[in-house]
Amino acid sequence: MHLLLFRDAPPSDGRRLRSSPRSARAAVVAALVLSCAAGAAAQPATGATVPPTPSPVTGQLRVTRTYHENFLQAPEGRPQQDVWATRAELRLEERVGSARRVKGQARLELAHFEPYGFSPAVAAAFGRDARRYGVEGGAYFQWNRPRVDEADVPERTDAFGVTGRVSLRPVRALDVFGAGGYRREFAVTLVAPTPWSPWDPVDTDTLPDARSDYTEYGGGVRATGLGSVLVPEVGYMRLERRVNRPHEDYIEDVAYASLRSSIGRRFSFSGRYRYRERAYLTGDVRSRNAGRTDSRHSASGSVDLGLTRHLYVTVSGAVEDGTSTQPGRAFESRVFESGLAVRF
Length: 344
Description:
- The protein has one helix at about 20-40, and strands at about 55-70, 85-95, 100-115, 115-130, 135-145, 155-170, 175-190, 210-225, 230-245, 250-265, 265-280, 295-305, 310-325, 330-344.
- By secondary structure, the chain is mainly beta.
- It has one domain (about 55-344): Porin.
- The longest helix has 22 residues, at about 20-40.
């Protein structure tokens, strides 16, 4: 730094006056004080906290307890089996790029169904969100998952699949999207876990292990004009199932409407209604599925409430009822779930 020391102005008679030592020392001290003050202003104050760089990875750890009423979807008037399940789920997401438009997601889940045992699952997805479009693709694996939804007997399934989604934004407040996927399942028929059989009598010893291929495609519309305050969505999907068991191929049409909302940072809720119609494709009039069509209505809702910045409590529920052109297959089932989630 250059210090400019100004002397007194020359007198009118042309003689110069020498500056006194005292005035010179005062000028030097003043310049040093100003220099130190400027340097201190350029540095953080002592004890001040420099804001940390935000982590590019966000996530959520969720643990829930679920009660399944009529888990095996036993027809009305038949004995029902109620099942408790415990789930632990970890979700991670990372966004990269200058505008953070490229994202990667991962999900790990471990579930325990009483009395069917443990069932793990893993999934990963990658995508890009641009101003006028979005693309996303993913894959998932699932093991030892009990269910009765796809057949008329309880099964334990292993599955893997891939999914894809493309969305366009013709206007700022509207998303139009198309989605599709493929899934392969390997199912083993389960023996009833209780002395009674809640489903129609079927000789499970004669049923081969099922190998099913599912193809799904469709699309929908989502309105985003109100931001996260209110996000309605409607859509339609078609599912085709091909299975190595005779007379169990079908086509299923799915229509749904959903509504999501986030109010502030610590409260959100969602609701969803879904209608499914399943038509079996067998042409054998002697088959039990000849001319069979099933219809199912389901409604679900969930609420997330933040107790602290990172700790949330979640509560959800669902109800489903089914009817069929085949007599004796109407049923109703319910699901209730509660849990805690830690977001980071």
